[in-house]
Amino acid sequence: MKYEITHRDYLTFLKTTKSAVFDYTPYPPRKDLSDPTNPQAPRSWLSWGDGASFAAWAGLRPMTELEFDKACRGPVASVANEFAWGTANQLAAPVAASAAANLVATLAPSSGLSREQIGASYWGILNLSGSLRDRVVTLDNGTGYPADKGRQFRGTHGTGTVVLPADWPDKEGNGAGFRGGAAGLAVAHMGVSDRYSASYVNNSRGARNGFRAVRTAP
User: Which of 21, 58, 77, 179 is 20 to 30 A distant from 165 in Cα terms?
Assistant: First the structure.
């Protein structure tokens, strides 16, 4: 996904699935079914279970840590301490964070804006450094379940329901973590290679937590 799940995306999901997504506990049904002020803005306050259920319903899947790296860097050589926009310039971080509020930013050459100015990855993907934290399937090689749950992931796509495929991290977030940092957190955690929270099991609905799903190329 070029952008994180937006308010409009998630509202469509909630209206379509109604209460089915909330069949698991201890999470109650969401109350915010009214149209948001900015429907194109990234949807925060998503737990792992919320985002993974959306991905399964949409026929998509979570991304792995390695896919996160590739989404940021593409096929080019790495840059020391780089952010998703390909440089180590921290001054671009606020720009990338503010891009979250305006998802209609163009990446056309005629715009005259660089990747660094827009906060875009090699592929033109936005908000991979800053904005909201991206959920990923962790590479953590822990001992036993649930620490090694991420190693069981086989890239299965969702099938149009909120049921998570068996190889995915479960609805409690075992086998998943965060990459890319978020606005308001230490800038260092927005780095492409930063794994500070890569294996942090957290299924909370936090103000800095979003979700971005992927699909395997044919």
Answer: 179
